[in-house]
Amino acid sequence: MLDKRTPAAMPAPFAKYSHAVIVPAGTRMLFCSGQLGVSADGTIPEDAGAQADLCFTAIGHMLEDAGMGFADIVRINAFVTDRAHMAGYMASRDRHMPNPPPASTLMIVTGFTRPEFKVEVEIVAAKVD
Which InterPro entries does the entry link to (predicted)? Predict the structure, then answer.
């Protein structure tokens, strides 16, 4: 079982994430490449929140394929192309994450491979079999 922690000696997280996660020895790990907000038919929504939803849908497929779920996520690394896209991304993340949530980092970057992409999300997951 993952041990998601926010030490009492630290300030509370700014949003829905844990400061740290302990992964026990012998745990099966899944490392997912960054997912972009593109649908199966190649459509890219204009809205950053809708793009984030597609990122988490793809991540959900990878987790399911590995016999895991969102509760097994250890860490999220997310990237948005503008501070204005943070709220849409964070609302999507919060809808998909269990309590307690995983560790998480959100960065603002200058762009991705195509200018219409606004959000990219990668995760690390772990499960004790």
Answer: RutC-like_sf, YjgF/YER057c/UK114
